[in-house]
Design a protein that fits this description.
Radius of gyration: 29 Å
Mean pLDDT: 94
Structural class: alpha+beta
Length: 944
């Protein structure tokens, strides 16, 4: 495929720059700061980062990053770093309690989805995206950041109100994982202070702390020398710097600041083992943590080169581990080894495996021996060449998208620079380093590095985590774990042999395809093609990204065309085929053949339709089309890989019903649809006994042996005159034999009337409420949008009343849906996690808000908040390929004019409070809903 003249010129310029860089690069030179970002420091020590970025338009990402997290808490403050973050939304110098959230919602910023914050061990980060269509928005955004930095009020009444919300957040985290981690972390972190300072804190402290304790934390650690302000987006840098100096220049550090020290992680003194079990654990795993060492962030170009080498061998080792899972009886479901970050300033080499039916020994053998094989014999030149191609391609794509990257990605990078000193030389410099340095990395250098990095029988922590054994089963003892590793270390390993593979997927494009008609929808810039075989294609060329092409296709049919007896074969047919590969290439062989290319394609057999989804870089569109062609003409049958797939799915399913959440989900599905065999509940081991190789392959071929009546959609960075010949060749020659191309209504309908069911499972004092309103409807786009508005205004009330006023929930809310296939139907689902003692109160409060909505409708102000947020988000979405792909796909399945996309704002603005009120009356029928409540095991819940 030839490049356009413009791209050739750009390539020539880049090549010239690369040649200059090659002459100037000295490994001893320090890594530069990216020229496109301004980094400065105020006299009080506050650091700032500023970058003008046009994506998304009329929006700026603001961040306040504080080098203060749970690790700095005194004993009476455990959990108060995180609590301080909560109080940032509960009263400050310029905003009363709840006033901040309400104001931001009024300018289109949604709480949770846009406005947010997080607290970790070593930092607290506040996230504030601000629309810049009005000057006062940006001014007020900086006022918010300033208040967060030094203006929080900590009103005692507000603190007490927030306690319940924070305790509900803590409740959400309870369960098997939390219980097991409390045993694991002290050992994993070698007794470090980190294990004693989990960000959520201690409930005893959260319930009883005095306001003075949280004020002390804020005074000690929220100070300018530990802060950074980041401003990235559609804003002039000089204006941003002026606002930073205006709002933060007056901040002062304490006269006698407490030293900001970082916790140390001691070295392991001996090899030991740990066995942790829990009856609600969903799976079994084994983990080997080798000695911890100080992490070194790159400072010089030589350091950057060292990091490249680490990434190369990490990629190659990961590929080898993945290959082990492709056996008929794999040693583990998934696993890997790598050098990874532990906490700030520390890293270690570790190995991990999710265990299959073979248990601990084969998994440990595989992990230890594969690491030893790499350490002793290294990698092959072919492996290095593939890894190098993939890495260079990633750099090239990142460079090509440098002016089309979202601001949020840049602020994340700058946050890491401030918190962890991660270098930010900029993608232009990084690409030049890759072009110069990657070709110089030799196989000998890689293998010598691997021999030093991969541990050789060093002190280690060996951990088994899993479910409590059932009757007749057992878990390993600590000594058995150590013996398993020792045995694996004594096994003899041999060099790995590399299989010879083809260098390309196909020899060339098929002949005979043609385009018989072409028409342009000028309103939305979509070209429609009809190919000689009748296949329809919609093309939406865009400049939203410089190197992204998305592909999708759809046709009615899917699993509905197969009887109940075949439902499992149909449900898993595309997954079975995907696990076996194409032509004579297994999935990992496909990855090797496609090394250096950015492409993926998957087939899907849904309930009512089937089709493809895929993406590629602009240069790899042909490879994407070849994969589609092979799915129609040359899927692969491999009994070993089929058995591997089935075995892994059964291993994953064996403990799934030990989790309260899984039992709860399953109960909801069956409460709504009864025992209908087509209910897609939680997978059981026995389900996969019903998936046969020949039958699932036959079902797939029945639906994908013909492209008749299928519509393909492409959106992204392609040129029409270059993509059309490829489409004609590959899609225009697809077989189009006679196959059914309409779905079958299998008659599955939700129950009617009021159905209530209580589920008792789980050892923690936590409950979840699920209430679902279902029914028939005469579908229309307007009704769907009005129903969505109903759900959103109710969610404002969930936050305002159930969370902020009653303090009985942390999260949750309403979700709505409406569809026209296989019949007109709607659903309004309410999900609310809470405490068992509060279930009845929460349900009563939710129903009270529903009744108010049915009686009074929403306030004009609340509805306007929802509409403004939608319009703001759609303006961003109109510049995203995925949005256009989704909308064009919907226009195909719903048979509507795709230009309706352009009328979205008009349709949103037309929604009235009265329409939402009527929707509440129509869809929230108190005589027709399903209510399922999850309680703890009966012995752990008080009588209702």
């Amino acid at each position: 495929m030839k490049l356009s003249k413009l791209r050739l010129i750009s390539g020539a310029v880049l090549l010239a720059c690369a040649c200059m860089a090659q002459a100037e690069i000295r490994l001893s030179d320090p890594l530069p700061l990216a020229p496109e970002v301004t980094v400065g420091k105020l006299p009080n020590g506050l650091t700032y980062y500023i970058k003008k970025n046009a994506r998304p338009a009329q929006k700026v990402e603001l961040r306040l990053v504080v080098k203060a997290g749970s690790i700095l808490e005194d004993d009476d403050q455990q959990g108060l770093a995180h609590f301080t973050e909560h109080m940032a939304f509960n009263g400050s110098t310029h905003f009363k309690r709840n006033e901040l959230i309400s104001y931001l919602q009024s300018i289109g910023v949604k709480f949770g989805a846009d406005l947010n914050a997080y607290t970790s061990f070593d930092e607290t980060v506040y996230v504030l995206p601000i629309p810049t269509n009005k000057k006062e928005n940006l001014e007020k955004g900086f006022l918010v950041l300033e208040d967060w930095a030094h203006g929080l009020k900590f009103n005692p009444a507000d603190i007490n109100s927030e306690r319940g919300i924070v305790l509900e957040e803590a409740r959400l985290g309870k369960g098997a994982s939390d219980r097991m981690n409390k045993v694991l972390y002290p050992k994993l972190l070698n007794g470090s202070r980190y294990a004693e300072r989990m960000p959520i804190g201690k409930e005893s402290v959260l319930k009883t702390f005095k306001p003075e304790a949280i004020k002390r934390f804020y005074k000690d650690w929220y100070r300018p020398d530990l802060m950074a302000v980041m401003v990235v987006g559609d804003v002039e840098p000089k204006q941003a710097e002026k606002l930073i100096r205006q709002h933060f220049g007056k901040l002062k550090n304490p006269a006698k600041p407490r030293p900001r020290l970082y916790a140390e992680v001691p070295q392991r003194s001996q090899t030991e083992a740990l066995v942790i079990t829990d009856k609600e654990a969903p799976d079994d795993s084994v983990f080997i943590r080798y000695p911890i060492r100080a992490a070194q962030e790159p400072v010089t170009i030589a350091d950057y080169r060292r990091q490249m080498i680490e990434n190369l061998y990490g990629q190659m080792l990961s590929a080898r581990m993945q290959e082990l899972t492709q056996q008929a009886n794999p040693p583990f479901i998934q696993g890997g080894s790598s050098m990874g970050k532990l906490v700030r300033g520390y890293e270690s080499f570790s190995a991990y495996a999710l265990l299959g039916k073979g248990g601990v020994q084969p998994a440990v053998d595989a992990l230890v021996q594969e690491d030893e094989r790499a350490r002793r014999f290294g990698f092959s030149q072919d492996e290095l060449d593939r890894a190098r191609k993939d890495m260079l391609r990633n750099y090239e794509r990142a460079y090509s998208e440098r002016d089309k990257s979202d601001s949020a990605g840049f602020v994340a990078e700058y946050s890491r620079n401030f918190l962890e000193q991660e270098a930010i030389p900029g993608i232009a410099n990084e690409l030049l380093y890759a072009q110069e340095l990657l070709p110089q990395v030799t196989l000998q250098e890689i293998n010598e590095t691997v021999a030093k990095v991969i541990p050789d029988q060093q002190k280690k922590l060996v951990v088994f985590m899993g479910a409590e054994p059932k009757a007749g089963a057992s878990v390993p003892t600590q000594q058995q774990l150590l013996d398993a590793v020792a045995k694996a270390e004594q096994q003899k390993v041999e060099p790995r042999t590399e299989k010879v593979l083809a260098s390309k997927l196909m020899d060339g494009p098929p002949a005979g395809g043609s385009i018989v008609s072409e028409k342009l929808n000028s309103a939305i810039g979509v070209t429609e093609l009809t190919l000689g075989n009748g296949v329809r294609v919609l093309l939406k060329p865009t400049d939203f990204k410089n190197d992204q092409v998305l592909m999708g296709s759809t046709r009615f049919g899917g699993q509905s065309l197969f009887g109940d007896a075949d439902i499992y074969n149909a449900r898993y047919a595309s997954a079975v085929v995907g696990s076996m590969g194409l032509k004579d290439l297994a999935p990992l062989d496909l990855q090797k053949v496609l090394a250096g290319k950015t492409v993926n394609v998957g087939a899907s057999l849904g309930e009512l339709s089937e089709g493809f989804g895929g993406s590629a870089s602009s240069a790899d569109v042909e490879a994407m089309l070849q994969l589609v062609y092979l799915y129609f003409n040359d899927v692969r049958k491999d009994a070993g890989l089929y058995q591997s797939f089935i075995g892994k799915q059964q291993d994953l399913a064996k403990n799934s019903m030990a989790q309260p959440e899984a039992v709860f989900y399953d109960a909801i599905q069956h409460a709504m649809f009864g025992d209908n065999p087509r209910v897609d509940g939680v997978p059981r081991v026995a389900d996969f006994d019903k998936v046969g190789l020949d039958r699932s392959l036959d079902i797939f071929r029945q639906r994908f042996s013909s492209a008749r009546d299928m519509t393909f959609i492409f959106a992204g960075s392609f040129e029409l005159d270059k993509i059309k010949p490829l489409i004609a060749s590959y899609l225009g020659t697809l077989p189009v034999g006679d196959v059914p191309h309409a779905y079958r209504d299998v008659g599955m309908r939700p129950v009617t009337g009021v159905v209530k069911k209580d589920i008792y499972m789980g050892s923690e004092p936590k409950s979840t409420i699920s209430i679902t309103f279902n029914g028939d409807v005469a579908y229309s786009d307007e009704q769907k949008l009005t129903l969505q508005a109903l759900g959103e205004v109710l969610n404002l009330k969930v936050i305002e009343v159930l969370r902020e006023k009653m303090s009985m929930i942390y999260g949750g809310g309403f979700e709505t849906s409406m569809g026209q296939h296989p019949y007109g139907h709607y659903s309004v689902a309410l999900n609310l996690p809470t405490g068992p003692e509060n279930v009845d109160k929460v349900i009563a409060a939710a129903f009270a808000e529903i009744n108010k909505m049915k009686t009074d409708g929403p306030s004009a102000a609340d509805l306007e908040k929802v509409k403004l947020n939608w319009i703001t988000r759609q303006q961003k979405s109109l510049r995203e390929n995925r949005y256009w792909m989704s909308q064009l796909m919907g226009s195909v399945t719903q048979g509507r004019d795709p230009a309706h996309i352009l009328r979205y704002e008009q349709r949103v603005r037309a929604i009235t409070p009265q329409a939402v009120k009527l929707a509440a009356q129509r869809y929230l029928d108190m005589h027709n809903y399903v209510q399922v409540v999850l309680y703890p095991e009966r012995k752990n819940v008080a009588a209702k």
